Amino acid sequence: MQRLEVDFEKTGLRSKMLLDYIKSDPFLDQFYKYKPSYNSFPQLIEDRKKFNVNREVLTSELSLQHASYLDVYPAVKNSILSLQSEKTFTVTTGHQLCFAGGPMFFLYKIITTINLAKQLKKNHPDYNFVPVYWMASEDHDFEEISTLNVFNKTLKWDQSVKGVTGKIPTASLPPLIDEMIALFGEAPHAAEMKHIIEESYYRELSLADATRHFVLSLFGDEGLVVLDADRKSLKELFLPILKDELLNQPSFRLVNKTNDILGENYKIQVLPRAVNLFYLDDQLRERIVQAPDEHYEIVNTELKFSKNIMLDLLEHQPERFSPNVVLRPVYQETILPNLAYIGGPGELAYWLQLKSVFDHHGVFYPMLVPRNNAIIISAKQLQKFEALGFTLEDVFKGEAKLTAAYTASLEEGNVNIDEEMQAIGKAFTSVGNKLSAVDQTLAGPVAAEHQKLVNSLDNLQKKMIAALKRKHEVSLNQIKSISQVIAPDRTPQERIKNFIPYYLKDGKQFIQTLKQNLEPFAEKLSVLVED
Question: What angle, 0 to 180 degrees and rounded to 10, lies between the N-to-C axes of helices 239-248 and 328-335?
Fold first, then answer.
C-alpha cells in the first residue's frame, strides 16, 4: 500500500481538546505531566522507577491467564518473564471485547502500542518494554459490542446479557460465526481467517478468553500481553483505593473541581458519581450508592449492606467491586509498571480529567499517547476522485458538500438567475407602487403575483439542478461511493468497518502493512492506498 498524509485539522477525526493537547496548549498543562513525545521518556522512566508495583502477583496472574499460549508464542512468555525485572515497563491500550475485533481502530490501538514498545527498546536498550492490551472485561454495555460490519453488512449477535461482558458465554455465537464465514467466499486467506475465528470462539467458553485467543492469533508473535483485570488477586492490590472510595468518596470532589476548569474550554467527557464503583455478582453489575444513614445499596436490586458488612466484603471478596470509568485508569496504573496509555480522543479526554485523582492516591500518572488514525481507500477510487477536480484533503468534507462543490464547478452549474430575479423584483415593486397610487388594495395582488413567479423560477432552478445530476450521474455516484468508503453513514471508516475483508485478501501481510505505516506520535493522518 502507498501511504499518503493529511493534516488532522482537515479531517475532523480528532477533537479540539486532543489537538490542543498535542500542540501543548498551556491551558491543559495542569492536567498532565509528560508531553507526548519520545523526548519525554528518559525522565518518564526515571520517575516511574519511584512507583513500585507488585510484580510477583502481576506475573503470576499473567502466567495463569496465558498458560495455554506460553509454548505457542515464546515472545509472550518472554514478555511475562521480563516483567519480573524492575527494568521492564509496560505501554498499554484498552478496548471493549468486540467480536472479531469490531471496528478497525481496535487494530490501530494495538499496533500503536506494539510499535511504541519496539521503538522504546531501540531508544533505551537497557530496559524492556512490554505492550499490553487491557481487556474491558468488566464493561456491561453489550449493545456496543454486539454488531459487526463486514463487507458493508451488519451482523448482529443475539444474546440476552446480564452482568459483565467478559463472562458472556460464547455458546450462542455459532449462528453469527456461520453467517460471517459464509461471506468469505473463495478469498485467498479465507481458510486462515476461518481457522482463527473458530479456534477463538468455539474453543473458549467466555468472551474474555475468546478475545484473548483471537488477539494473540494476530499479535502473539509480537509479545503482546492480554490482561483480564477481573481477578481477585489483582483487586487485592487495589484494596486501599477501593476502601477510600467507599468511605471518603474523594473522586467526586476532585473530578468535579477539574471539570469546572476544563468545562471553560471543552466538552466534559465524564461526570463522576458519589461512589465510582460497581458491585459484581453472578449476572450482576450495578452501581453502589451510599444512603443517608451510611449503609450501602446496590442500584436496581434489593441488596443493602451496612458499612461494616460492606467493608468486610471488600476485604474478603474484592472481586465483587469494580471501578467505573473514573477509577479504572487508576486501577490499571496500580497493577502495571506502565509508562504510557494509548487511547482515542474520547479516552484521552477523560484521562485528562483524572490527574488529581491519581495524585490523591499517590499513583503514577502516565504519558497519554493518541492512537494512530488511518483510512484505507483503493487507488482506483482515489484516481477517479482526483479526476473530478478534488484533492485528497477534500475527501473528508462529506458527500453533501462534495456534491454541491462538484455541481457548482460545472459550466452548466454556473447558470445563475439572481440578476434576473432582482430585475423582476424591481419591476414588480415599480408596478406595485404605481397601482397602489391608484388603489391601495392592488398592492396585495401584485405581491402575490410576484411570489408566484419567484416560486416558478425556484422550481425551474431545482429542475435544472436535477437535470445536472442526471447528466453527471456517474461522477456523482463516484463521489457517493468514496464518501461511503471514508465515512459510511457519516461515521469515520475506522469506527464502522471491520478489518477482515482486508485480511482475507492479504493475510498477515495486511497486519504487517499497518505496522509499517502506523507510527506513534504521527502528526498527520495516514491514508493507505490499496493497489
Answer: 150
